[in-house]
Amino acid sequence: MSETELVRLDREGPIGVITVNNPPVNALSPGVPEGIIACLREGEADPAIAAMVLIGAGRSFIAGADIRQFGKGRPRPPLGQRVYDVLDAAAKPVVAAIHGYALGGGLEIALACHYRIAVPSAKVGLPEVLIGILPGGGGTQRLPRLIGPKAALDMIVSGRHVPAPEARTLGILDEVLPEGADLRAGAIAVATRIAAARPLPRVRDKTDRIAEAAADPGMFDAMRASIARRARNQKAPYNCILAVEAACRLPLDEGLKREQELFAELENSDEARALRYAFFAEREVARLPDLPEGIAPREIRTAAVVGAGTMGGGIAMSFADYGIPVRIIDSTPEALARGMEKIRANYATSVKRGSLKQDEMERRLARIHPVGGYADIADADVVIEAVFEEMDVKKPVFRALDQTMKSGALIFSNTSALDVDQLAAETNRPADVAGTHFFSPANVMKLLEVVRGTKSAPATLITAMALGRKIGKIPAMAGNTDGFVANRSRAPFNSEMVILLEEGCLPEQVDKVMVDFGYPMGPFAVGDLAGLDVGAAGRRRRAAANPNYRTLPIADKLVEMGRFGQKTGAGWYRYEKGDRTPHPDPEVTRIIRETAARMGVPQRSFTDEEILRRLLFSSVNEACRILEEGKAYRASDVDVMWLHGFGFPRYRGGLMFWADQIGVKAVYDQIEAWHQQYGDRWAPSKLLRDLAATGTAFRDAKAAPMV
Ligand code: T1G
Q1: How many CA atoms within 13 Å lie on the side-chain side of 242?
Q2: Strand partners, 583
Q3: What is the pLDDT of residues 645-657, one digit of tens each?
Q4: Is 64 in the pocket of ligand 1 (CB under 6 A)?
Q5: Assigned CATH for 303-479
């Protein structure tokens, strides 16, 4: 028996069962491919073994190459000696038995096997493009042979996970076992059945589907055109297309060489390093280093929402979308009815777009219950307050919730910036209170800031984080500070973009720079979408609290004129009726120039790079202040928030990762120069100064203990 702790070979009669055991997801870490090859060779050499099964222990088949090993310069076996090649050359049938996930190299191993079966809940995919590379184990060459180039292009360029039933329909799987069937036994039965079958059914020999490319040669250019907007500035998606094209015109072994060339162009690219960083940052953000280990989250079976406005409705949908019944109240029946109407309309739009089935919409709507008042939500396990963003509106709500909610209920606020401690102080149970800041639209945006009050109990925070994951969010811990972490780090960006206008920029110039950088929308267009009146309220509050607050006369002037953005047909841009396309507006240019003249600001022109750095460096500096005040755990948490709260381009890793590519010292020097030129608003934070002095990267910055 060839056995290492990672891969073992057992014998079930004439069938050799190779089991991969590399928790948690059976990644192809060092030793795993070698172990599989050793077991294959042993099975081939044993005359008592007629066929083999390859299966994963634990919760999954094989989730792909070990992403942690990339960029370490580890030598790779040459073509012909990799696990995919050894499988391809096997003299005995090998059945891939899939549960959980077969992704990346895991699916490529299965494609090199002779037969593929799975349980109904399994998922398969080639998600390499999502980490900036491409399937490098033959997937770009075998998948088109199995399911046709068009379907292969879709899977490889999107990186999506395909459920087993669909994978069977496509032809990736040969069989999907019945619900509840024993996968190992099923695989052994298949192996027994095909043991003597010759010739072995190898994917390399299937060439009929490849012919589809000859019938539709335009499919590759069509795919390139279809991804042009979202894949701009990126290389991996385009190399994926080139690899599939190669599969349609080269013999397999030539195609494998071409795949290796295209892979090698990507592995250590900036895009791949940034996307790998983002992958791990999204897992790191779940770690709460200063909370006691072993505290189980409270079970949340039912939820409630106070406030049926845009946010409250979106939050209610977030619960319903993930199977949690939710009751919703508002101050008047009319407001509640309007809220329900909006929820129904939101779902109907998704059904119309084809992203939601009608019956699923009905099931979700059935989980959202508009009810009369506080008494009707008292037994909910969690309640989220989502009323108007003013303290004197929220405080009475917290008093009422404290008087009505059952003991042990968690009471969260969706406030986007207000002091969570003040809200908790309105209750007799501050330990059960925290902030859960959803980003609009709440049922769509992934980011959920969990804001810890001074008295929030660890169990409360741990439950809030777990609840966030349960409803499909990416929860990130934030300290209780004005704007918490995401909005507070974004605030200087929002000021700097308007101050640039005082100095000679125009909204359309700034927006173009940020869209070219990779944002889906420019910040002025986003302002028009969110509503300029919303930002004005925040500025008024901060100006009242801080006499040195830098006001933004141009933005205030637009709000005074009633130019709130899309909702009033004009804001930074002009909008045609019924059309959301922003059009530069000479009236805004006039306001900008007149205000700047009145302020006596010298006018000048700007390079794109300076515009980009003025906006992003201001936020990098504020993020350092947030870290040094102990309001965030780590710089990579700030990055996760910028990726999932503000649409920062993922292939640049995140705000702080991007700044690290420029270098802490260069960032510091530029900020210090602007400090000399513009005064205190550009004063470097202490942490930034220290990092620059010690040559420490932002990603290695040590945050102060969370307070
Ligand atoms: N390598 C290393 N670690 C991995 C990993 C991987 N491929 N996948 C997951 N982990 C870790 C993860 O960091 C976390 O660690 C733990 O496992 C649980 O993951 C040759 C070159 C499989 C869908 O891109 O999509 O194959 O936080 O929290 O939500 O062509 O993990 O516990 O310390 O995400 O249940 C292609 C990436 C690689 C799959 C499970 N494969 N993984 O999700 O758990 S490139 C992928 C995922 C490749 C070949 C190429 C997900 C998952 P920790 P998790 P989950």
Answers
A1: 16
A2: 574
A3: 999 999 999 999 9
A4: yes
A5: 3.40.50.720
Q: Is 143 helix (H, G, I), strand (E, B) or coil?
A: helix
> Given strand 162-163, what is the order of strands in its sheet?
101-103, 123-125, 162-163
Atom of ligand 1 nearest to the CA of 101: 22
Token reading at 364: 């979700």
Confidence of residue 56 (pLDDT cuts 50, 70, 90): very high
Give residue limits of the domains in the chain.
3-268, 303-479, 504-605
Please answer whether residues 436 and 469 qualify as being in contact, where contact means their C-beta atoms are separated by less than 8 angstroms: no
Burial of 10 (0-12, 13-18, 19+ CB in 10 A): middle
59 Cβ closer than 6 Å to some ligand 1 atom: no
Q: Pick the catalytic residue from 108, 271, 385, 449.
A: 108
Per-residue pLDDT reduced to its tens digit, 299-312: 999 999 999 999 99
- In this structure, the number of other CB atoms found within 10 A of the CB of residue 640 comes to 25
- DSSP reduced 3-state for 10: strand
Number of the ligand 1 atom closest to the C-alpha atom of 123? 23
Of residues 34, 128, 496, 609, which has the active-site annotation?
128
pLDDT in tens, 467-520: 999 999 999 999 999 899 999 999 999 999 999 999 999 999 999 999 999 999
Here the tokens at position 659 are 């700044």
CA distance linking residue 152 with residue 163, whole number of Å: 15
Distance CA 223, CA 218 (A): 9
pLDDT band of residue 283 (cuts 50, 70, 90) is very high
Rounded distance from Cα 25 to ligand 1 centre (Å): 7
**Rounded CA gap, 160 and 101, in Å?**
12
Cα 597 to Cα 310, 507, 553, distances in angstroms: 39, 17, 12
Q: How far is it, in rounded angstroms, from Cα 49 to Cα 99? A: 24
Taking residues 202-216, report their average pLDDT.
92
Among 6, 67, 273, say which to mutate for ligand 1: greatest number of ligand atoms within 8 Å of CB: 67
Alpha-carbon span 53 to 204, nearest angstrom: 20
What pTM, to 2 d.p., does this model score?
Answer: 0.94
Cα–Cα dist 336/328, whole Å: 8
- 3-state secondary structure (DSSP) of residue 68: helix
DSSP state letter for 650: G
Is 381 close to ligand 1, i.e. is its CB under 6 Å away?
Answer: no
Q: Is the CB of 27 under 6 A from ligand 1?
A: yes
- Calculate how far, in angstroms, residue 662's C-alpha sits from the geometric centre of ligand 1: 28
**3-class SS shares of the chain: helix, strand, coil, % to 5:** 50, 10, 35
Q: Tell me, what's the pLDDT at 545?
A: 84
User: Atom of ligand 1 at shortest distance to CA of 65?
Assistant: 26
* Active site (annotated) includes residue 508: no
Answer yes or no: is the C-beta of 103 below 6 A from any ligand 1 atom.
yes
Q: pLDDT tens for residues 86-105?
A: 999 999 999 999 999 999 99
Long-range contact list for 227-235, CB < 8 A, 24+ apart?
227/157, 232/518, 233/518, 233/649, 233/651, 234/132, 234/271, 234/651, 235/132, 235/265, 235/266, 235/269, 235/271
* 108 classed as catalytic: yes
CATH number of 504-605: 1.10.1040.50
What is the rounded distance in angstroms from the CA atom of residue 606 to the CA atom of residue 611? 7
3-state secondary structure 225-258: HHHCCCCCCCCHHHHHHHHHHHHCCCCHHHHHHH
Structure tokens at 286: 């779940």
Sole residue written with tokens 């109904």: 120
Q: Does the C-beta of 66 come closer than 6 Å to ligand 1?
A: yes
User: Residue 302 is which amino acid?
Assistant: T
**Superfamily of domain 3-268 in the CATH hierarchy:** 2-enoyl-CoA Hydratase; Chain A, domain 1 (3.90.226.10)
